[in-house]
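INTERNAL TRANSFER SHEET
From: sequence group
To: structure group
Subject: Flagellar transcriptional regulator FtcR

Please process the attached sequence and return the structure record in the designated field. Keep the field labels unchanged so the import script can parse them.
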Amino acid sequence: MQFIIADDHPLFRGALRQVLSSLPDEAKILEVGDFDAAKKLVVERDDIDLLLLDLTMPGGTGLSGLVTLKALQPALPIIIVSGTDDAATIKHAVELGASGFISKSASMETIGEAVHAVIAGDIWTPSDIDLDQAHDPEIEALINKIRTLTPQQTRVLTMLAEGLLNKQIAYELNVSEATVKAHVSAVLQKLGVDSRTQAVILLSRIGNEAFTSEAS
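Return from structure group:
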């Protein structure tokens, strides 16, 4: 099995590596310490079985980073590992495509339980988290809008957030500029906004909701 550990704390990476190495199947583990390196691996590799992701490492953009990676590889299981582990953040992470959420204060046994569950195809969150509980209605409405986007539309949105022009997005996606314009129009309509800037601001709200750029 192939795994990516994306975390900027060597000690915590070591703990995750120990858990993955104890799995019955031989594990090949790739490690990165910043978000851009994690994104690069997700783009280049289609044989990854699980990504363990800290969204507050350098370059991390909070939950909008999760949106970016899921758009690149929609089927890739991602477990968020974070010191920010309030109920709303965990629920929002799962709604945006995370397969699990592990607190950095969790025991090795709990981490192992989460990894096993997600590899088996389940969603894993701490037992005291109620995924049906309502939180900030405005943020949850925004998440619901983002979830209506196709993977390609989501990629276009994240590229807009990176400041790319239509021509650059067309090159990256290997499509025509007309196709990009159609995607942008669809994104704006689904998000209920009138401009690219407004769309990018909405995506940044997801990133800023709970996480910060500081290491957890």
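Handover comment: The chain has a mean pLDDT of 90. The chain is about 50% helix and 10% strand.
Transfer complete.
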